[in-house]
Structures are given as C-alpha cells and as structure tokens.
Write a structure and sequence with these properties.
By secondary structure, the protein is α/β, with parallel strands linked by helices. It contains 16 helices and eleven strands. Strand 6, helix 7 and strand 7 form a beta-alpha-beta unit. The N terminus is likely disordered.
C-alpha cells in the first residue's frame, strides 16, 4: 500500500562519527591563517581557483569560516563558478602538521556544520591537536552552491512518510511512485537550476584539490567516512601523486555496480538486525521472546500489518510501513541506539508508533516543527543519480527485486524498486574513473568494521587488498557504522600514528 519512497539510495548515511569526550582547557597556540602558494603545474585556466585569496572570518572558538570558488563545470573552468562553504578548526600546536580535509558521509552530509557544532567529537584529541581540521559542504549541500532544493516540507512529508493507498508493488503503486518521483525530479531541477547537472562525485573530488591548495598544503591529508570513502577513492584515482595521508572509514567499493551495492547494503542491515535481536533476547526487558528466527517472523508480520493499517503517534501523524522501515534502519547504524529500537518495538506492539516515527524523523533531519533542518535527502539523491543509476524497466526491476527479497526476507520487500528513485532524473550519469587503483599513491589506510550494516566489512577488505595498489586494512571487530573516533584505542592509535608519524601498520592490527 505504501509506495517505495527513498530508503535504499546509493550510499549510506553517516549516523555517528565520534563519541570521545571534549578535552579540558589548555593553553593553545595562536592561529596562523592558511594561504595558497603559487603552483607552476596548474594551468592558466585553473590558476584563479587554485591561487585565490579567501577572507577567513572567526565563526567559533579556534574556528574560521570562508567561501571558496570552484568551477561549475570542470570541463570549462571559465564558464562560471560555485561557492563552497568551508570551515576549519585550528590545530592546538604552533606549527600544525598541515590540514586534514574530511567528509562525514551521505552524500549530502555537511562537513561545515560538523566543524561548527561537533568538531570536538571528530576523530581524537591527538589528531585535532596536530592538524587543522577542515570541513566543507560539497557542491549542492547545505550552504554551498547550488543548494539542492526540491519539494516543500509538506510534499517531502508525503514522499517520506505518506501512503498512496495502493497495494505495495501493484501496477497502480508503481505508476503512482513513478509520477511522484518524476514530480520530485522536476521540482529539484526547477528550484536548483542548471548547475544541478554538475553535482557529481568526480567534480566534488576535483573541488577537494582546490581546497588543498587554498589551505596551503602541497599534498592532501584526507579523512573520509562512509560516502566520504567514495569521495576519497575518486580523488585518489584522479590525483594519486597528490596524496600525503588518506584514511577511508566505512568503505564503499567503487568497482561494485549500483545494483549489487544495494543488495550488499541490504545484507549488511539484515545482519545488523539479527545481531540486535540476539543481543536483545539475552536481556530481561526485550520486546521479543524465543529465537532470532521467531523475532524476525514477528517483525515481518508487524510490517505487513502496517501496509494496510498504519499506527497512530502522539503528534497526530500516522506511522506507515515506509516510515517504520526508516525508523528501524536508523538505530542499526550504531549499537548505542539499540535500546531505542527496543523501545520503538515495545511501543509499536502496543499500538503506538511514536518512537518509530521519531527515529525516522532523526534519520530524515525532520524537526519537531515539521521543517527539514538540512537538504541532505535532496542532495543525496541529486548526487547519487549523477554518479550511477539502475535500470528501471520492468524486467530489470523484477530481477533486482528477487535479489532483494532473497538477501533479506524481512526487509527486502521494502527495498524493492529502488531504481525508480533516479528514473526521471533530468541529467545524465557523469563518467567516473575507469581505474581506482591509485597507482603511485602514498599508502592509504582502509578502516573496516566487521559488523558495519551500511558499508559491509567485505567492501573494506576488497578495497584494501584488491582495488587499491597501496591500500592497508585496519579491522575493527565490532558493531556499527565507521570506527575511528568511536571504537577503541587500537583503531585510534593506528590512524593517529599514520597521520602524525606516517607509520603504516605492517599488517592488519585486527582491533
């Protein structure tokens, strides 16, 4: 009954980067403003971007903000420019080791906001003491141009939480979904403008090279989480000789087709759901009883019932099956959220969908006032649809759907028809690198979590051992999405020693 919406997009959203406590006050060195140096290797058409002088302004404690210009279309740099919002938190020491440019994921998450609001929880205090930490909003995201804007809040609510009244997967449901997503694509194009054709990951990776130059670094130090790993891999493919240090955490394998990525990610969430249930069933207050298989059967029955009978919530909205799936996925990103998932199930089994819809709101960046606090969802789709898309003809979708249901009998029913998300996108897919091996690069650290639901561990293994010529795996044995800054001292030491001392683990530390 619920049309699909946008649960299974190309890449995972980053739920949580760091959990470390802020450090006590210490005497800090004066801030030295970075500036770009002349570079004879840059062509004349790109010199205005690489050698631009920017106006840094204070926007927080030891935080400076600015806007940096990049070409709208990298194939024609003189045709126009976009403005990117950039912020950095100055290192504690008088002579920083350089700047670490980071991306928190998405695509569509704001690195600029991370610096302003959460930088003390990013990575470790050791990293922050020695490096300037740079966050930016990639093109199309947040405060950068062109900000992707599509539906208003009411229309977005219907797309993410609504119900079209048709049986799931029926011809009427698919027709309605195609029409809605076509309206969404048209609204994005109308409200964002023609620069929306240039929001792809390859263009964003080239933007990073401009940021590197603006920060005064001859070579790049980079930290990418989740989708940020794909952005880093793309940079490495384009500029392998410009890397000094690169850490990829929560890794996407860029050589895997989009249709396979969706199935792989679904398997990751199915595994995380099983791990959650096994943990829950070992406690006395779990809303499930019996075995994991019996608990999965109860969830399957619960979701099927929601298809025809949504649950009421305390704010007057209804919990549809689409919103319930979003609310279920969100706490699987981190074991810290598992108690909230148990609360959501306990309430829902008593007929109250309030906690589930609250979890969905958190995932969708929907505020209590009904407004969306970021454009993450819109930017996510705009970027993803330029990077790759799946065939949306009936036969191809039938094959893809069968893979989904086989990958997760519990969740797969609600991850079908993901190809419709980009079906009506008005701009073509942008060419990406044919070779991601980054031949000639410095060593690249690849951090993988064995229980990562969004970017399964197998992808980290593949990228470190097969895709990259100079990749080095750091395994974290645990649950959750990403590891550096939120796992253990073993991972923290491996990454910090790499950034600060250029020490590459001789073998996987198997943390």
């Amino acid at each position: 009954m619920k049309r699909l919406g946008v649960l299974a997009i190309a890449a995972a959203l980053l739920a949580l980067v760091g959990c470390a406590s802020p450090q006590p006050e210490v005497s800090l060195a004066p801030i030295v403003l970075p500036s770009a140096s002349p570079d004879s290797s840059i062509g004349l058409d790109l010199k205005p971007f690489y050698e631009q002088k920017v106006d840094w302004k204070s926007c927080g404690k030891r935080i400076l903000c600015t806007h940096v210009s990049v070409p709208t279309d990298w194939a024609y740099p003189a045709a126009g420019s976009l403005s990117l919002a950039v912020a950095y938190r100055a290192a504690d020491i008088a002579k920083p080791l350089g700047s670490v440019i980071f991306n928190p994921g998405g695509p569509g998450a704001s690195g600029y906001d991370w610096i302003l609001n959460s930088v003390d929880y990013l990575g470790t205090s050791t990293l922050r003491a020695n490096f300037n930490i740079v966050g930016f909003d990639p093109r199309g995201v947040g405060m950068s141009e062109p900000k992707v804007k599509c539906f208003d809040a009411k229309q977005t609510d219907y797309m993410l939480y609504g119900d079209n009244g048709f049986p799931l997967g029926s011809p009427q449901d698919l027709k309605s979904t195609r029409e809605l997503l076509g309206q969404f694509a048209s609204a994005c194009s109308k409200n964002t403008g023609p620069a929306m054709a240039h929001l792809d990951t390859v263009s964003a990776a080239k933007d990073i090279d401009v940021l590197r130059a603006v920060m005064g670094d001859a070579k790049l130090n980079y930290l990418g989480f989740s989708y940020g790993s794909l952005l880093g891999e793309t940079y490495a493919a384009l500029f392998p000789n410009k890397i000094k240090h690169m850490v990829l955490d929560g890794v996407i394998d860029p050589t895997v087709p989009d249709s396979v990525q969706s199935v792989t990610q679904l398997k990751g969430f199915d595994s995380a759901l099983r791990n959650y249930l096994a943990d829950c069933l070992s406690t006395s207050d779990c809303p499930f009883t019996g075995t994991v298989s019996q608990a999965l059967a109860k969830i399957k029955t619960f979701l099927r019932a929601l298809e025809t009978k949504p649950l009421p919530t305390k704010d007057g909205r209804e919990l549809t099956v689409g919103a319930a799936n979003t609310g279920l996925i969100m706490p699987l990103y981190s074991q810290d959220y598992w108690p909230q998932l148990s609360q959501a199930f306990a309430e829902a089994f008593d007929g109250d969908g309030t906690t589930f819809i609250g979890l969905a709101d958190s995932y969708n960046d929907r505020g209590a006032n009904g407004q969306y606090t970021t454009n993450l969802m819109e930017a996510n789709i705009a970027i993803s649809c330029l990077d790759a898309r799946q065939p949306s003809d009936e036969s191809s979708m039938a094959t893809q759907n069968s893979w989904m249901v086989a990958a997760s009998p519990t969740l797969g029913r609600y991850w079908q028809f993901g190809a419709l998300t980009c079906d009506a996108w008005p701009y073509p897919v942008v060419a990406h690198p044919k070779d991601y091996s980054a031949k000639g690069s410095a060593p690249i650290l690849v951090v993988g979590t064995t229980g990562d639901p969004a970017t399964p561990y197998s992808q980290a293994v593949s990228v470190a051992n097969k895709v990259l010529r100079n990749g080095h795996l750091v395994t974290y044995n645990g649950e959750g999405h990403t590891a550096y800054g939120r796992s253990n001292e073993c991972v923290a030491s491996a990454v910090d020693n790499y950034f600060i001392k250029s020490v590459v683990p001789g073998s996987d530390p198997d943390c």
